[in-house]
Each structure stands twice: as structure tokens, then as C-alpha cells.
Amino acid sequence: MPVPYSKILDHHGLVAGFCHSLGFADIIDKALGGAAPERKISCGQLVTAMVLNGLGFTGRTLHMYSEYFRNKPVDRLIGEGVLPEHINDDALGRCLDSLYEYGVSNLYQQLGEAVVTKLGLATEALHLDSTSFHYDGQATEDDEPRHIRIARGYSRDHRPELNQVILNLICENQSGIPVYMKPASGNSNDMEGFKQIVKAHIGSLKAAQASRYLVADAALYVKETIEDLDAQGQLFITRVPQTLKEAKALIKQAPTLMFTPISQGYEGVSYDSEYGGVKQKWLLIRSEQAYKREQHNLNKRMLKAGEQARKDFKLLGQQRFACAQDAQTALIKWQDKQAVCNVNAQVTEVAVYASAGRPKLGELPTRIEYQITGNLYTPLASRQSALEQLGLFIIATNDVSEGLDMASLLSSYKAQQNVEKGFRFLKSPDFLTSAIYLKKPERIEALLMVMTCCLMVYAGLEHQIRTTLVEKNCYFPSMKYKPEQRPTARWVFQCFEGIAVIYLPDKTALVANLETRNQTIIDCLGEKYQKIYS
């Protein structure tokens, strides 16, 4: 006699409902030419399965799925007729290969445009940034230009001994949803990577998203890149590298400038620049929080710099020079490199005799050499000057109109944290993608796209939950059981734990353990979600 059995639904219905309402699988299948008739599951459905697994927060690797879906109601989540055994390694491998062959950046851009359109987001600004994911396998030896290279490079994870790959993201400014992604080789440079993205893709993104500003960190501020942006009519907001001569000069003038309060903890002063032949407005900002943080480290940095100066001067004092002019030149070069220490130095003559040891009475030296001696000191003015330059940074924009005030400029730049928030999500222990275990660079590129799709669905669903709660004047209990309208998606997911589908012998399906707070979210989100949880 048949017995009832159950399948775990949890929060997966929310993720699946968002994908269904977006037409996620249909967009992918249309781009890739549809599913092959002999296959039981389409590539779009497989990507949906990967997103469901990625947002399952189970601690499993992103490419091990068959076992994962055995206790899930796959027909509700992915589609009628789909079985767990259809989601196998062979099917997933072919899917990743198909994504790569089409072009992961182009395909993802279509998905990004769809989600922004569905949510009705007005993208005032796009934010560009990059991060690295370490790879425990071997570096790629070939120089095939079609795909990325797995190699060592600057590691954001502080794991320089490991090979890695780079992920560049462009996110919209309201909810941090990625609208564009591009994988890059592990040894690629952000400045070069941003330059290529600006040349090849900013025009199409600007047309699709109707964004006003492109916001990025100092890696964007390269002469050629800002020239390209200005030529395309793209307004930018970016941080100015403090290594530029013009930036150094402006920061040195800070004690003599009249700063204006911008917002709590920030004050600034405007400055006109034409760096790279582009008319710009620079905003020199002093941050109270950054000042306190940097002041705390100032003594440590000065002690470290002083100790290094002492060692360098000791080595300099051990050198011998053929003439006093050479010694004086070497001393000047040493002084030019010192940011903290000065020296009371003199060049002294050193007699050199023909043989070692004490010279004989009346013996004349064979030659005269010159040596540097002296005492190091740190002038109080050095510390005062360093204090005056703490907490300062410069933001640049080519929007020189009167409509962009200092507060708006600072606020737009600070929204860059949305991209960094997304990177933290991708690297969280629950998501388990700080390391990648696939071998083929082509499939790694495709996996990076799947990871970005997970972030897109997570951020998009969170935005939709918050928006609909406000629109329908509904509330969801917080962790402290107080009503709120801005819950995180992670907290909502936790509140859906324990929901299951029970299948009775007469093939009736019942959803169990559904609480009032769960029903509030489902009712707000709409029909597709109600169907999954009905």
C-alpha cells in the first residue's frame, strides 16, 4: 500500500518563483537556440537548478547537484517532468560549455536588463569593481586568447600563493543588482581590465540602462580611460589616485583651504582640474572617521619608516666614494626618499693606505675616499604635516554642471559599497565560492556567470520583497519579532525553513508548516509564488 512521503521546499520556492516570473530559463534557452529534443532538461532549467543550489546555503560545492535535489519538489521548482537524475554531471558540463560558447558576458547582460526592467529600477548610476576567487588547481599553461588564464596575481583574499581568477561586476545603484559581469585572468590588472570594459561595453550598457554616471574606484582613473568615457559622453565619478602629482599638490594645500561641511563626518572643497585633457570637478574630502582610523596608525607607520630610514642610512654610511661630490649626491638621493626622517650629515675624508692595519710612522695614504656620517632625527613639523593630511581623499567627476553639488557627489561615490556588498555575499562561507574546483577555464568562466546569477536573484528578490511590503502596507517580523518592511533576504530564507510538500497516496500534494509570516511574503509577491506554495 502506498505511503505518504515528503519533499523539502523551504525558501527554494521564493528563488524559483523569482526565476519563473523573470522568465529566467526562457531567456537562456532562447539565446542558446532552445533545448535539444533528446534531452530531458533544457540549459535554462539547468542554470535555474544551479542558482537554486547556490542559494541553498548548504555548504555544498556549486557543481554537485544530483544528490542535492533528491529530496526537493523538482517539478514545482524547475518544471514539470524534470527529475533529480536529469540534473547530472554530464548535463551540467554540457550546459556550462554552451554558456561559454555563447559568451557569458553577453548572455548575462540580457538577464541583467530583464531583471532591472521587471523591477522598474531607474539606474541613476552604475558601479564598477572587481574581486578575485582563488583556485586550488594548476595554472593554465596555454596562451589561448579566447578564454581566461588561471594564474597568480594580486589576491584580495590575501592568498598570493594560490592561482586565481578575476570577476569584474557592474551593479546598479539602488539594490546592488549586477547588470554586467566579465571574467578575467588571474594576473590581470584592474586598470587594464576597466579600460577594456569601458571601450567595449559601456556604450551598450549606457543605452540599455539609461544610467547617468559610471562610478568606480581609483583603478578607473587612468588618462586613456577617462578620455574614452568623456568621448562617449559618459559621466563618471571616481576616486583620484593620490600618487598623481596634481593630487599630491592639492592635498599639501589642505591646511590653507576653506573646507565646507557636506554631511555628518565629512567636509570638502571643490577644485577645477583638466587632467587628461578632460574638464573635471575634483572634490577634496576630509573624513572624520578616516582621520581617527589613520591617526591611530600614524605612530606605528612613523616608527616603521624611522627604523627603515636608520637601516638605509647605516648602509649608506658604510659606502666609500671617490670624491666628495659623489657622496653629496648619494646623500641627497637618500634624503629625497625620506618622508619622516632628516639627518645632520657631513661628508668626511677617509685615508686609504697600501696595506691593512695601522700605518707606519710617516707613511702617506695611497688615496683619499669619502664617507657619510651623521645623526638621524624626526622633526616635529613632519608629524604635524602628516596629521594635516590624514583622512583626505579626492573624488573626480566630468559632470561640471551646477546641478551636482558636493553632497550628491559624495553620496554617489559611497554607493560603491553596493558592489563590495555583493562580493562579500559571493565569498561568504555559506555560499562557498571563495574557491573554485573546476578544471577547464571555459567552464570556470561559465561558473562565474552562474555565481553572478545567484547574486542577481538574491538582490532582486530582496528588493522585490521590500518594495511589495511597502506597497501593500504589510509587515514582516524582524529577528527581535518587531514588524518591519526591510528584511534581508537571508532572514526571510531562514524563516521559510521547515516548509515541506507532503504527497498523499491519492497523489494529493499538501504544503505543511506554512506560518502566517510566510504567507505574508507569498501573498505580497504574487501568483507564481502562491502556485509554488499552494
Rg calculated over all Cα atoms: 31 Å
Question: Beta fraction of the residues?
Answer: 15-25%
Number of strands: 17
* Outline: elongated
Quote the average pLDDT. 85
Biggest beta-sheet profile: 10 strands, mixed
Q: Roughly how much helix do the residues carry, as a percent range?
A: 40-55%
State the separation between the terminal residues, measured CA to CA: 26 Å
> How many domains make up the 3D coordinates?
2
Structural class: alpha+beta
What's the tally of helices? Answer: 19
Q: How would you portray this structure in words?
A:
This protein is of the alpha+beta class. It has 2 domains: 12-217 and 416-482, no CATH class; 241-402, no CATH class. Helices cover 43% and strands 19% of the residues. The protein is built from 19 helices and 17 strands. The strands form 4 sheets. Strands 2, 3, 4, 5, 6, 7, 8, 9, 12 and 13 form a 10-stranded mixed beta sheet that branches. It has a 3-stranded antiparallel beta sheet with strand order 1-16-17, with no helix packed on it. The protein has a two-stranded antiparallel sheet with strand order 10-11. Helix 1 crosses helix 16 (441-471), helix 2 crosses helix 3 (43-54) and helix 5 (89-102) packs across helix 16. The longest helix is centred in the last third of the chain and has 31 residues, at 441-471. The chain is elongated, with a radius of gyration of 31 Å. The relative contact order is 0.15. The mean pLDDT is 85.
